[in-house]
Write a structure and sequence with these properties.
The protein has a 3-stranded antiparallel sheet with strand order 4-1-6. A 3-stranded antiparallel sheet has the order 3-2-5, with no helix packed on it. The chain is of the alpha+beta class. Helix 2 crosses helix 3. Helix content is 35%, strand content 33%. It has one domain: Jelly Rolls, CATH 2.60.120.10.
Length: 98
């Protein structure tokens, strides 16, 4: 994924990890079990970061329709995605009023 591009899918890391970059600098690492690319699917906006796989990894790919169907069918998944988004906002802007 590249920052600024349109997002049509989300990814769940099955094995290994990924480095997250914003404006060309590393800001976070994601690992097994974490979701990537969900922000663009939730709000329809462009990708907020670039993701680079650290090594060969296995990912589950969810297209936009699959992602939303999964959240509609499983409210626990929707809640977990929203919790993850909130945590990432707080980590990105720790001094902002939330």
């Amino acid at each position: 994924m590249r920052e600024g591009e349109r997002g049509e899918e989300a990814f769940v890391i099955v094995t290994d990890s990924a480095e997250i970059e914003r404006d060309g600098r590393a800001v976070a690492t994601r690992s097994t079990g974490e979701i990537l690319g969900e922000i663009a699917l939730v709000d329809g906006g462009p990708r907020t970061a670039t993701v680079k796989l650290v090594e060969d990894s296995r990912l589950i790919v969810l297209g936009r329709k699959q992602f939303h169907a999964l959240m509609d069918e499983y409210p626990d998944v929707r809640l977990r995605v929203l919790e993850t988004l909130a945590q990432r906002v707080r980590a990105t802007e720790p001094d902002a009023a939330h």
